[in-house]
Specification:
275 residues, seven-stranded mixed β-sheet, alpha/beta, 13 strands, four-stranded antiparallel β-sheet, globular
């Protein structure tokens, strides 16, 4: 392992950064970036440190032990990640191809550090995309079959790229904070069929998208990324749909990238997303 990313949550107190950086300095690790945040309301401290380990003077196991000892004293929760290790990501899709192609192209261009072993769908429209990118494709309808595939492919993250199905509780439980969903964001929130048609008829002035972790409560999970663009009375339902597709795929990409780079800490249904 040449690098490590440290994520820590603990009660806010004096000396947190000093203890962590001193530990890394003693091991001869080189700190590449450090970001922290204090939530005054909950009195919680969050930190993300990326370090180069190529010249450390001890084993990684020894460094890990020292960091865990510090974490125990701080009464926190610490996680160490290898940023060079690629996660296995499953794409779930239905009929819309744009967000799926966008993720596959971004990955092929090395903008996403992951492996896409499979596309799972309740339709056959995405079969062509899977073939083009030499990815396995599964047309499934049963939840048991989906879970079996996820285990076989050793999936670490699920991306719902406009997957128009309810994710069952069993999968959400197995992949807590590891299922990223994208949906449109309007004010007011237009639910049901044809939201862009409703938005055009209502004369909305902003359309947008929200990417979040999926939970059992529909569209209520921790928010990762959001974006909006202005529209006006001159925009038709068709133009709004196209603008909506563009912003949805961009926001989904940003959320997936943040997850893969371990820039997200989730606590109490809230995300801290470091830059």
């Amino acid at each position: 392992m040449n690098k490590t990313i440290i994520q820590l949550i603990c009660p806010d107190q004096k000396g947190i950064i000093a203890q962590l950086t001193s530990c890394l300095y003693k091991s001869n690790a080189n700190i590449l970036s450090i970001e922290q945040h204090v939530d005054d309301k909950s009195e919680k401290f969050y930190i993300r440190i990326e370090s180069d380990l190529t010249e450390i003077n001890c084993s990684f196991e020894k460094l890990q032990e020292e960091l865990k000892n510090i974490n125990s004293k701080l009464l926190g929760t610490i996680n160490l990640y290898n940023p060079d290790s690629k996660l296995n990501v499953a794409i779930f899709g239905s009929n819309e191809t744009e967000p799926v192609y966008d993720l596959l192209i971004k990955n092929q261009s090395n903008n996403l550090n992951c492996i896409f072993p499979i596309i799972i769908s309740n339709h056959n429209k995405l079969k062509t995309a899977a073939k083009q990118f030499n990815i396995d494709y599964a047309f499934v309808n049963t939840n048991d079959e989906i879970l079996k595939i996820l285990k076989e492919k050793k999936i670490d993250l699920i991306v719902l790229a406009r997957y128009m199905q309810i994710i069952p509780e069993s999968i959400i439980k197995a992949y807590k904070n590891k299922i990223i969903n994208i949906h449109h964001s309007f004010l007011p929130a237009f639910k049901g069929a044809n939201p862009y048609g409703q938005a055009a008829n209502k004369g909305v002035k902003l359309i947008g998208a929200t990417a979040h972790y999926a939970t059992n409560e529909l569209d209520e999970g921790p928010i990762i990324s959001q974006g909006a663009i202005p529209v006006s009375h001159t925009d038709s339902e068709k133009s709004m749909k196209q603008l909506g597709k563009e912003i949805e795929k961009n926001i989904l990409y940003k959320a997936v990238k943040a997850h893969l780079e371990y820039r997200i800490i989730v606590y109490d249904n809230k995300t801290i997303v470091f830059k």
